[in-house]
Amino acid sequence: MLLEARDTGQPVDVASLVRTVEDAAGVRLQLGDAGVKQIRESPDAFRKIIPRLVEGGLGIRAWTGLVQLAEARLGEALGLDGALATPIDWPAAERRLLESVERAWANRRETTVREIEQELESLVPDGVAVGRATLARALVRMSYGQRTLFDRRTHQRRAVVVARLSYAFPAAQLLEGKEADELAAEIEEHLRGATAEVERSLGAAELRRAGRPRDLPERVQSALARALGSEGWEELRATESLEVLPPERRQTLEAAVGRALRNEMYRGLILAVGDRLWVDYLTQMEGLRTAIGLEAYGQRDPLVQYKSRAFDMFSHLQADIRAGVVARLFRAPAPARAPGAVALRPGAGDGSPTEPAAPTPAEEPRKKRRRRH
Questions:
Q1: Which of 322, 222, 232 shows the shortest CA–CA distance to 264?
Q2: What is the pLDDT of residue 113?
Q3: Is cis: bond before 91, omega within 30 of 0?
Q4: Exposed end of the chain (fewer CB within 10 Å): N or C?
């Protein structure tokens, strides 16, 4: 373009020249009015400053990406939108970025502490004893909060739930320096204790709900018969109310009932995960049977390929079932009450079951009247 302008004697089109260089370099050149004037006065000198301009454009791109990454990680605007002089003084830019990050982090820390204090004051009033359940709710609530953000697509403000705290880092500090064997032993001990506590809670809730041994679900009764023996179960079955049992005997029953309910919960979890993945597996096998004939075009035996792929798919099915069960094992809800279970009358001293209420006239199916013609 410069040679053409020199041969024809025409002035250089500065805009076209700069656009051509930008397209070739893939960056935007930082040219001010002085740079444009310099190109008009001495087009040949523009060749010498092209490397410096490209370096400045790449530096601006890297700086902008770094600032955007820091803002996305912090969730705060750093206020570094001002233009930088090129070539960039990277040590000075680094100090500027770190100062902005520290300032934004200090503001975030102050705001987070103030929000947590307000929420804890509303959650735990003064003069009220703090129990384990309240403490657990407070710890969970502390880790999440709400923030109002501006949605660029809808141009509206909306409230979103954001993570304020992460307990992974304090937990990692507590585990730092421990041996693998010691850590594994602590995890196993905690798991056994947590499992026993879950079983006790499930058993206590089920015993309070049932009221009498004969009102327990059949699977629970079978588990108690195996745990207590035939004589012990018959003696317990003759008891009219579980509330009159000694504390030691009741704790034993709570553990046995909770263990049975936990096994029932695990059984349902395995069946639910396996049923869902089995349907997907059958769908994939149907697709494999449909498309396996195309292997013949690649000089491969369809039967051999079908057996190989079917074996791999079944292995993946087993691995997915194990992974799904383990992933949901510690988040599975408590087993729901069996349908058709008999409820107790409120305030009934004898614990006799309530008779089902008679259907009201509105609930009875209405007979269709035959129309006479």
A1: 222
A2: 87
A3: no
A4: C
Q: Which CA distances in Å does 79 have to 65, 71, 76, 93, 100?
A: 14, 9, 9, 13, 8
Q: Round to whole Å and give the CA distance between 165 and 144.
A: 7
> Is the distance from CB of 199 to CB of 258 less than 8 angstroms?
yes
The CA–CA distances, whole Å, from 164 to 123, 151, 173, 200, 268 equal 17, 20, 18, 33, 35
Q: How many residues does the chain have?
A: 373
First vs last Cα of the chain: how many Å apart?
98
* Structure tokens, 192: 């056994």
Q: What pLDDT, on a 0 to 100 scale, did the predictor assign at position 1?
A: 55
pLDDT-wise least confident of 160-164, 327-331, 348-352 = 348-352
- Over residues 243-263, the mean pLDDT reads 80
Residue where the block lists tokens 């349907």: 279
d(CA 70, CA 92): 17
The percentage of residues in the chain with a pLDDT greater than 70, rounded to a whole number, is: 76
Of 264, 347, 245, which is closest to residue 237 (Cα–Cα)?
245
Percent with pLDDT over 90 in the chain: 9
Enter the tokens of residue 149.
Answer: 């953000």
Three-state secondary structure readout of 78-140: CCCCCCCCCCCCHHHHHHHHHHHHHHHHHHHHHHHHHHHHHHHHHHCCCCCCCCHHHHHHHHH
35: tokens are: 């740079």
Let me know: does 269 contact 228? Beta carbons within 8 Å. Answer: no
Q: Cα–Cα distance between 282 and 176 in angstroms, integer?
A: 46
Question: What's the CA gap between 295 and 137, in Å, rounded?
Answer: 58
Q: How many CA atoms lie within 13 A of 241 on its CB side?
A: 8
Q: Is pLDDT above 60 for 194?
A: yes
**What's the longest Cα–Cα distance across the chain?**
116
Q: Tens digit of pLDDT for each residue in 343-355?
A: 333 333 343 344 4
Is pTM beyond 0.70 here?
no
Side-chain-facing half-sphere of 243: CA atoms under 13 Å: 8
User: pLDDT higher for 38 or 347?
Assistant: 38
- Give the gyration radius of the chain's Cα atoms: 37
